[in-house]
Write a structure and sequence with these properties.
It is built from 4 helices and 2 strands. The protein is an all-alpha fold. It has a two-stranded antiparallel sheet.
């Protein structure tokens, strides 16, 4: 599959996985009081500079991650495919969020524990969801080609 096509599908899968899988995991962790009360799922607070709702900003960046990772992980098969998506989501997204995004925003680096743990869970679920959606898109493409 051409690189641009896989990157575009990766963006769509990552965007949707953020809204569906990541935020659902976040919601469940929030409901059991594992996540601080000031960090609910599907947040609508505006994010500068365009004042888009925070959840849309998160979904956009989930899409960017999907677009970058899809071409890299697409050639994997079986358990390696699923494990790579979950582990990359869990580790790379979490560390980037904690150390890079915090620094860009001029915020202090958050304490490692417990934020690392709940971020790993939610971001791992994002990876699983993105992988699932990409596989679903792949099957849909095959069905359309046969029709």
């Amino acid at each position: 599959m051409p690189l641009l096509k896989i990157a575009l599908l990766g963006f769509i899968a990552g965007f949707l996985a953020t809204l569906i899988f990541h935020q659902s995991a976040w919601y469940l962790l929030y409901q059991v009081h594992f996540i601080p009360a000031d960090r609910p799922a599907w947040p609508l607070d505006p994010v500068p500079p365009f004042d888009v709702p925070s959840v849309i900003s998160k979904a956009f960046w989930g899409g960017v991650w999907g677009a970058v990772l899809a071409p890299l992980l697409d050639r994997l098969r079986g358990k390696a495919y699923w494990a790579a998506w979950v582990l990359t989501g869990a580790v790379a997204l979490t560390l980037t969020g904690m150390y890079v995004v915090s620094a860009i925003k001029g915020e202090p680096i958050p304490p490692f524990w417990p934020r690392f743990f709940y971020a790993v869970l939610a971001n791992g679920v994002w990876g699983l969801g993105t992988a699932f959606l990409l596989r679903l898109f792949g099957e849909a493409r095959k069905d359309l080609a046969r029709a």
